[in-house]
Write a structure and sequence with these properties.
Distance between the termini: 44 Å
EC number: 2.1.1.-
Number of domains: 2
Order of helices and strands: EHEEHEHEEEHEHEHEHEHHEHEE
Largest sheet: 7 strands, mixed
Mean pLDDT: 89
Catalytic activity: L-lysyl-[protein] + 3 S-adenosyl-L-methionine = N(6),N(6),N(6)-trimethyl-L-lysyl-[protein] + 3 S-adenosyl-L-homocysteine + 3 H(+)
Structural class: alpha/beta
CATH topology of the largest domain: Rossmann fold
Pfam family, one: PrmA
Strand content: 25-35%
Shape: globular
Main location: cytoplasm
Helix content: 25-40%
Strand order of the largest sheet: 10-9-8-11-12-14-13
Keywords: Cytoplasm, Methyltransferase, Ribonucleoprotein, Ribosomal protein, S-adenosyl-L-methionine, Transferase
């Protein structure tokens, strides 16, 4: 698969805008991966911003990023990368993420796992969900705070399988299913599952991986109903899929939703309230809320 990188020169202040999640990039699908660097330490105000995409970047995406970097004057470079180059470049500078009991890291930091933490080794790559994004962190924090023990869980729109791995490592007696519409995401999920020493399969303590377009997929329907569903996607699909997600949630089941902006949370909650699902709490990181709901 081809991956693209477009690069802007920028100031440090402009680069700092991208150290947190950028709301202007939230609705792009697939989401871009953004990284900043200081190419020359002797020039502390000369920074570089790299944007990685799995499709040729749209003019709208380029213009959106460019508008946040006025010092670049619209100038950028665009290069095509092979998979190996993409993984190598995108892993540079990815620090571990701590979220409750979870410690998300790449192979480079595998030996830094703190005692008593659950390690999740996720390499940067072609699927969304390295743990660096606030939506993923919010889901992990919400999972960490759960006061119930799920028996049958679904990670809908799994990306890298990071949330499915968090579930199976926390509750090894649970059945865990992970699905994504993107075959590349399922390939990446398979690789990450193996790296994390978790078996792929349909039994307890394993992860059952499926390429599926929504919950109408026969394989997913056969695995339900689920007493825990986690979906870190976008507000639009979350609202559109509310009836099918609600129908797949077992009585008393927990639903965790992310991928939406703060201004979209009320509309998402309303869509699920209309389906009989009750909002319970929100975990907010910057502009990104994670919603916990209950099929009471």
């Amino acid at each position: 698969m081809t991956t693209w990188k477009f690069t802007f020169a920028c100031t440090r202040a402009e680069a700092d805008l991208f150290t947190d999640d950028v709301p202007q990039l939230a609705d792009f699908d697939p989401p871009p991966v953004v990284m900043t660097s200081e190419p020359d330490e002797s020039k502390p105000d000369s920074w570089q911003l790299d944007v990685y995409t799995v499709e040729h970047p749209s003019l709208m995406l380029i213009e959106t990023v460019s508008a946040l970097l006025p010092s670049a004057g619209g100038a950028y470079t665009l290069v095509e990368l092979d998979d190996e180059d993409w993984v190598t470049m995108s892993q540079a500078g990815l620090d571990p993420v701590e979220a409750g009991r979870f410690f998300v890291h790449t192979a480079a930091d595998a030996d830094t796992l703190p005692a008593g933490r659950i390690g999740l080794q996720i390499e940067a790559g072609l699927a969304f969900g390295t743990g660096q994004h606030a939506t993923t962190t919010g889901c992990l924090l919400t999972l960490d705070a759960l006061d119930v023990v799920p028996k049958n869980a679904l990670d809908l729109g799994t990306g890298t399988a990071i949330l499915a791995l968090a579930v199976v490592k926390t509750w090894p007696e649970a059945l865990v299913t992970a699905s994504d519409i993107d075959p590349v995401a399922i390939r990446v999920s398979r690789e990450n599952t193996e790296v994390n020493m978790v078996n792929i399969g349909d039994a307890k303590g394993e992860i059952s991986l499926h390429v599926a377009d929504g919950l109408e997929d026969a394989a997913l329907a056969a695995r339900g109903p689920f007493d825990l569903v986690v979906a870190n996607i976008l507000a639009g699909p979350l609202i559109e899929m509310a009836p099918s997600i609600a129908a797949a949630l077992a009585p008393g089941g927990t639903l965790i939703l992310a991928g939406l902006l703060a201004g979209q949370a009320d509309a998402v909650e309303a869509a699920y309230r209309d389906c009989g699902i009750t909002p319970v709490s929100r975990t907010v990181i910057g502009e990104w809320p994670t919603l916990r709901l209950l099929n009471a």
